[in-house]
Write a structure and sequence with these properties.
This protein is α/β, with parallel strands linked by helices. The protein is 35% helix and 24% strand. Bound molecules: zinc ion (ZN).
């Protein structure tokens, strides 16, 4: 099994499963955003999403593989890619804006192109921020033995938002496209995926797993919100990955609170199943490191230990009050607040691709089985 190379390839794979789907809306570049139906007609519904961050590919592949593998009578909705533009990669995003085919061989190529075709807004060492039309494009070479371009730029731009917000002024209400810059991770490569950030009209820089319940949510976020509102899922999954925990894995149960006993059973069932499937669980230090990235505020010191979180079993965390925090609501927060418990997963990107996909398939299967056993 290998990651999807393009969003069209993903759509083809979805169609081969014979699952029905509806097109919720289209990205600014025209990609149809899919809500795929599987399972049966029994309520309550289950909602599975992946790919809000396009570099996190095992979740995307698992979401499609589930269409064949998940056996349940419950109504299941799947949005396999919450950022099709990012999935199609950085040159594709540039091609759309420039109206011609763009091929990039190196960061040299990219820097020359942004300088020639864009309006350069900010330049510092090898970091370049440019506007082409109404889309921002950022570049930074990966750190040797360190952060990928995407991770470095995410942290750097968060720092800019807090310390030099005037730099982001021209990007207000616009997207900023980052290159993956993960040459050692198959599928992501240097430019094969892009990571989408959006600067809200209030100047806050957020990724596509934020902006829930804001009036200026990007269309990809709106689509996820719409399926949630239409189906009121009793159980949701959002599948993520990180480069910060080697090949380890953890997940969180965001608690709805109406049936705490079952929420704990759900966590235990998923933990047991993933342990049997061979998962090596992340440490608490791993989890603290990942959770801190999303804040990346220079005024916030990394927590010494996890706060407001209960370690239920190794690799399984309970989040009793899934709330907005510094960056606002993400999908699992909103699902847990309004509808039912939601599971957020993080697989380590340095594991073998098929192993990561298998762990995520196991998470969903075990979770849905726990839902069925509930009544
Ligand atoms: Zn993610």
């Amino acid at each position: 099994m290998t990651p999807f190379e393009t969003y069209n390839e993903l759509i083809k794979a979805v169609e081969e499963t014979q699952s029905s789907y509806q097109v919720l809306n289209r990205t600014p570049a025209g990609h149809p955003i899919l809500d795929v139906r599987t399972g049966g007609d029994e309520e309550p519904a289950v909602f599975i999403t992946a790919g809000a961050h396009a570099t996190e590919q095992a979740g995307i592949s698992a979401a499609v593989a589930l269409l064949d593998r998940l056996e349940t009578d419950h109504e299941v909705h799947v949005i396999p890619s919450r950022d099709p533009i990012g999935l199609d990669g950085y040159p594709s995003a540039l091609s759309h804006i420039l109206g011609r085919d763009v091929h990039l061989k190196s960061f040299d190529d990219l820097e020359v192109l942004l300088d020639r075709e864009g309006h350069v807004v900010h330049l510092e060492d090898d970091i370049l921020l440019a506007l082409i039309g109404d889309v921002g494009f950022a570049t930074k070479r990966p750190e040797p033995d360190g952060d990928s371009s995407q991770l470095y730029l995410l942290k750097y731009l968060k720092y800019i938002q807090h310390e030099f917000p005037e730099i982001l002024e021209p990007f207000k209400g616009r997207r900023i496209c980052l290159p993956a810059g993960q040459p050692d991770i198959p599928g992501s490569g240097t430019f094969d995926r892009a990571y989408t950030l959006v600067v809200g009209p209030d100047g806050r820089l957020l990724h596509l797993n934020r902006f829930f319940e804001t009036p200026w949510a990007p269309v990809e976020v709106e689509c996820t919100r719409q399926v949630m509102a239409d189906t009121e899922p009793a159980l949701s999954f959002d599948l993520h990955e990180t480069q910060l925990i080697e090949d380890r894995f953890y997940f969180g149960v965001n608690q709805h609170g109406a049936d705490e006993k079952w929420e704990r059973e759900l966590g235990r069932a998923i933990q047991t199943a993933t342990a049997e499937a061979g998962a090596e669980f992340a440490t608490e230090a791993d989890v603290a490191r990942v959770r801190n990235i999303t804040v990346a505020d220079p005024d916030v010191r990394p927590p010494e230990r996890l706060e407001g979180v209960e370690l239920l079993k190794q690799g399984c965390y309970l989040y009793p009050n899934p709330s907005a925090g510094a960056e606002g609501l993400n999908a699992t927060h909103l699902e847990a607040q309004k509808y039912g418990p939601s599971i957020g997963t993080e697989t380590g990107m340095w594991g073998a691709f098929e192993d990561r996909v298998e762990i995520l398939l196991t998470v969903v299967e075990a979770g849905v089985e726990a839902l069925e056993a509930r009544h």
